[in-house]
Write a sequence for this structure.
């Protein structure tokens, strides 16, 4: 796993109760040790005092609430066509989650655009390290995106989507992972209408609370990104306006050709990052949790 994936896995690990219990034990040991510490070492005493004064119950509460808060933030982003992948530190994950839950809905697009715009280089590098066989395609799409014009975005978007499509099938071991399950899988326990990716993911991870961290994969079938032609027509009729969201089928099957905007390219890139960085790190974390 590359450095980016390890960082996401590290963030996830910090929400594990055993991790918190270890910190609590350290706190107790430090508190007992303080009376024996040489008071002539003020820097050490100051550090020990700060550790001993932490409200671990409040920390526990905040961590317990985070899976649901993270899901809410991801839902807010996905409603506007974005995939909120954790791409940095624990502090950043908290900050972005809180900001998404507090800003006006009309600000989500620019907020998420800037979130990914400022990280294109480092995230694409991490993706290429994680999937070296896909590095040529990813790098070419990023170069096209960085042309910052309609032609470039028109070229980058289908490549970002296609690579994410291949990655998710590879990661979850599900053929045509973005297709909806058929009657055969429904009889085996799949939820009617969900994608093969969602079914495969739920088979790998049973803990419903932990699945909040990857909820956009479970909810793909309900998103504009995968909306089928019939549902798009119904949406257009009910809203009275044209369907304008980034839609995988419309792009990959050539139904439209006017999708080449910076926002759509960054949206497609966010999907690639969620699938290629966030999802593998989550599964690695869950694999370690089950050891």
């Amino acid at each position: 796993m590359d450095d980016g994936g390890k960082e996401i896995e590290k963030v996830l690990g910090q929400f594990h109760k055993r991790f918190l219990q270890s910190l609590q034990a350290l706190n107790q040991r430090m508190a007992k040790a303080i009376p024996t510490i040489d008071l002539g070492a003020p820097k050490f005493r100051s550090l020990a005092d700060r550790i001993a004064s932490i409200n671990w119950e409040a920390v526990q509460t905040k961590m317990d609430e985070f899976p649901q808060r993270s899901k809410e933030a991801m839902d807010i982003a996905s409603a506007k066509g974005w995939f909120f992948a954790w791409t940095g530190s624990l502090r950043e994950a908290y900050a972005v989650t809180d900001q998404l839950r507090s800003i006006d809905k009309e600000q989500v697009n620019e907020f998420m655009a800037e979130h990914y715009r400022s990280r294109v280089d480092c995230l694409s590098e991490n993706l290429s390290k994680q999937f070296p066989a896909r590095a040529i395609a990813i790098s070419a799409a990023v170069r096209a995106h960085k042309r910052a014009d309609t032609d470039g975005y028109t070229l980058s978007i289908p490549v970002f989507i296609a690579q994410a499509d291949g990655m998710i099938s590879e990661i979850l071991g599900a053929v045509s992972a973005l297709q909806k399950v058929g009657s055969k899988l429904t009889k085996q326990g799949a939820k009617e209408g969900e994608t093969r990716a969602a079914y495969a993911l739920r088979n790998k991870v049973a803990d419903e609370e932990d699945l909040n961290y990857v909820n956009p994969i479970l909810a793909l079938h309900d998103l504009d990104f995968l909306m089928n032609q019939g549902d798009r027509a119904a949406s257009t009729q009910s809203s009275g306006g044209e369907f304008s969201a980034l839609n995988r089928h419309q792009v990959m099957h050539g139904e439209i050709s006017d999708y080449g905007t910076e926002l759509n390219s960054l949206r497609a890139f966010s999907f690639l990052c969620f699938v290629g960085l966030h999802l593998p790190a989550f599964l690695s974390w869950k694999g370690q949790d089950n050891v």
